[in-house]
Design goal:
By secondary structure, the chain is α/β, with parallel strands linked by helices. It contains 17 helices and 16 strands. Helix 5 packs across helix 6.
C-alpha cells in the first residue's frame, strides 16, 4: 500500500491549494482493495490536480502547513467524479410517438426501416438552430451533472450532413462552461444513412472519410469517431473504411457493436485499437478475446436494453473472465434511452447485467476514463490526476450504486474547485 503514498515534487517548497481530510477515499485505484479504499484519508490538491493521497496520519507536515484551504469532510466519502462515456445528448424533437408504437408491438428496427427512428431526429436536428439545440441539451446535461458527473462524452450523429454534424459538436462544446464540467466529443456521422444518400451508400461513406473526418480533425471538433455497425446501420466493411480514415487523421475510434445482432464489429474495433466497443449484447467469444487482447473497453448500456425491452444480456461473466474492462454509460438519446441518469444505468447494470456495485462504480469512473483514453488524467483519486471529485454523505460507496435519486453528492469539485453552473 505504501507505494501509493507518493508526494509530488513541486520543488522544495510544498504547495497545496486544498486539503481534504476526515474522509474515506474510494480511490478506485486497482490493487488497493475494494473500491481502492483509503481509510481516514487526506487528499491534497495543487493547481487543480491531486498532489498527495493517503492516510491522514502519514500526511507530510509541510504539506499540511502549506494548505491554503482545509476542508473537513466529517467522515464523508470522497469519490472520483462520475464519467458518462457514451451519450447522444445534442438533438431536437421527441420520439415519444415511437415509444407508443413499440408498446403497440412495433420493433425498433421496424420503426427505423419505415423512416422513423434516428432519421426522425435527424430531420428535427437539421432544422434546429445552435441556440435551440443548446437550450434543449442543457436540460438532460444538468440532470446528469446533478448526479455527480464531471466528464460527459457527447456524440454527434443527428445531423449526418457536414454542417449539422459540426453544429452538434459545437453545441456539445458550448455546454462546458454553463455546466462547469468537462465535455469529450465524438463524431458519429456513420449513425444512419441520410435520406439524400438513400441510393448512394458508398458516396455517403466516402463523404464521411474524405470530407468530414479531415475537417473534424483539423478543427478539433472531436477526438474520436464512432460507427453504428448494425444491420440497420453500417456494414463491417463500411465501418472498416471509416476506422481507417479516422486513424489516418489521428482520431481515436469506438463502435456501437453487436447491439441487435452480431456482425463482428467488436473484433474489428479491437484490430483498430479502438478505445471501446459499446452495447455488446450479441458479442461472441472471439469478439471478447479480441477486445481482451487489444485492451478495448466494453461499454455496457443497460438503459437502451431496458427501454427496447431486449432479452439478450451482454455476456458479463465471459467479459469478466477474459478481463475485458467494463464501463457503464447512459447512452442518453431520444430514441432508445431518453433517461438522463447515469445512476440509473449503474443501478441497472447491477440488477439486469449482474455487475457488482464496485464494478458499476469503477465502470462510471476509472474504466469510463479509459473508454475515453483519459485514464492517465482522471477517473481515480491518485497523484497527478485531475481533482474532479464528489463528496458523498454515505456510509459506504455501495450506497451510491444501490439507490437512484438519493443520495446526492454534498459537494462536487472540478479541477479542484467547486463545480460552478451558470
Ligand atoms: N445506438 C443507440 O442506442 C442509439 N444510437 C445507436 O447507434 C440510438 C439512437 C436513436 O435511436 O436515436
Ligand atoms: Fe449510443
Amino acid at each position: 500500500v505504501n507505494r501509493y503514498y507518493i508526494a509530488t515534487d513541486y520543488g522544495c517548497k510544498a504547495m497545496c491549494d486544498t486539503l481534504f481530510h476526515h474522509c474515506q477515499a474510494a480511490t478506485l485505484v486497482p490493487g488497493l482493495g475494494a473500491y481502492g479504499h483509503v481509510q481516514d484519508a487526506a487528499v491534497a490538491v495543487t493547481a487543480g490536480r491531486i498532489s498527495w493521497v493517503g492516510a491522514a496520519a502519514q500526511l507530510p507536515g509541510d504539506l499540511r502547513r502549506a494548505a491554503r484551504q482545509t476542508l473537513n469532510l466529517g467522515g464523508a466519502w470522497l469519490v472520483p467524479g462520475l464519467i458518462d462515456c457514451h451519450s447522444h445528448l445534442v438533438f431536437a424533437g421527441s420520439r415519444a410517438l415511437e415509444f407508443e408504437q413499440r408498446a403497440a408491438g412495433a420493433s425498433y428496427a421496424q420503426i427505423a426501416l419505415a423512416g422513423g427512428g434516428i432519421l426522425r431526429t435527424v430531420a428535427a436536428t437539421r432544422d434546429a438552430s445552435e441556440q435551440a439545440l443548446l437550450a434543449t441539451a442543457t436540460v438532460p446535461a444538468r440532470a446528469l451533472c446533478s448526479e455527480g458527473v464531471t466528464t460527459l462524452e457527447i456524440k454527434s450523429g443527428y445531423g449526418l450532413d457536414l454542417e449539422t454534424e459540426c453544429r452538434q459538436l459545437q453545441v456539445a462544446k458550448a455546454l462546458e462552461v454553463p455546466l462547469g464540467v468537462h465535455i469529450e466529443r465524438t463524431y458519429l456521422g456513420a449513425h444512419s444513412l441520410p435520406p439524400e444518400y438513400r441510393e448512394r451508400r458508398n458516396d455517403y461513406v466516402e463523404m464521411i472519410c474524405a470530407r468530414v473526418i479531415p475537417r473534424i480533425a483539423t478543427e478539433r471538433l472531436a477526438t474520436a469517431v464512432d460507427v453504428f455497425c448494425e444491420t440497420i446501420g453500417f456494414t463491417l466493411a463500411e465501418t472498416e473504411r471509416v476506422f481507417s480514415a479516422a486513424r489516418g487523421a489521428g482520431l481515436a475510434v469506438k463502435v456501437h457493436a453487436e447491439q441487435l445482432s452480431n456482425l463482428g464489429a467488436s473484433a474489428l474495433a479491437a484490430r483498430f485499437g479502438a478505445l471501446s466497443a459499446d452495447h455488446l449484447e450479441y458479442i461472441d467469444q472471439s469478439g471478447i478475446d479480441a477486445m481482451a487482447a487489444a485492451g478495448t473497453v466494453a461499454v455496457l448500456l443497460p438503459l437502451p436494453f431496458y427501454y427496447l425491452r431486449e432479452k439478450q444480456l451482454p455476456p458479463v461473466p465471459a467479459l469478466r473472465a477474459a478481463r475485458v474492462p467494463m464501463a457503464v454509460a447512459s447512452d442518453f438519446n431520444p430514441g432508445t434511452a431518453p433517461i438522463a441518469s447515469l445512476r440509473m444505468a449503474m443501478n441497472m447494470a447491477c440488477v439486469h447485467f449482474g455487475l457488482t456495485a464496485e464494478e458499476a462504480l469503477s465502470g462510471a469512473t476509472s474504466v469510463a476514463a479509459r473508454a475515453l483514453g483519459l485514464q492517465a488524467d482522471r477517473g481515480q483519486i491518485a497523484v497527478g490526476q485531475r481533482a474532479d471529485l464528489c463528496v458523498w454523505p454515505v456510509d459506504h460507496p455501495r450506497d451510491i450504486v444501490a439507490s437512484v435519486g438519493v443520495p446526492v453528492p454534498s459537494a462536487v469539485f472540478v479541477d479542484g474547485s467547486p463545480r460552478r453552473e451558470s
